[in-house]
């Protein structure tokens, strides 16, 4: 039997918040931050719910490196 996704609760909270706020992400920033915190606690691939947040993190790191004049290693 597969293990329960450790960040599933936060993912569901995001969906509820988005639905309640006509999908305006700015109104759900608190629950998005909770999801990011949850995803940061687990190794890559542990939570399927975190796959989009892992991509977001990689993109932020690339942008930060580019703004500092450093080329990020390809992933």
TrEMBL record:
Disulfide bridge positions per record: 7-38, 17-28, 39-50
Cellular localization per UniProt: Mitochondrion
Gene that this sequence comes from: CMC4
Native source species: Chelonoidis abingdonii
A Gene Ontology term for the protein's cellular component: mitochondrial intermembrane space
Family per similarity comment: Belongs to the CMC4 family.
Chain ranges passing through the membrane: none
InterPro entries: CMC4 (IPR027179), Cys_alpha_HP_mot_SF (IPR009069)
Keyword NAD among UniProt keywords: no
Organism domain of life: Eukaryota
Protein name: Cx9C motif-containing protein 4
Presence of the UniProt keyword rRNA-binding in the record: no
Keywords: Disulfide bond, Mitochondrion
Pfam families reported for this sequence: CMC4 (PF08991)
């Amino acid at each position: 039997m597969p293990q329960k996704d450790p960040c599933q609760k936060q993912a569901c909270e995001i969906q509820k918040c988005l639905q309640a706020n006509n999908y305006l992400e700015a109104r759900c920033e608190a629950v998005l931050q909770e999801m990011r915190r949850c995803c940061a606690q687990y190794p890559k691939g542990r939570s399927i719910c975190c796959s989009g947040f892992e991509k977001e993190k990689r993109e932020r790191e690339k942008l930060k490196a580019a703004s500092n004049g450093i080329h990020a290693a390809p992933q």
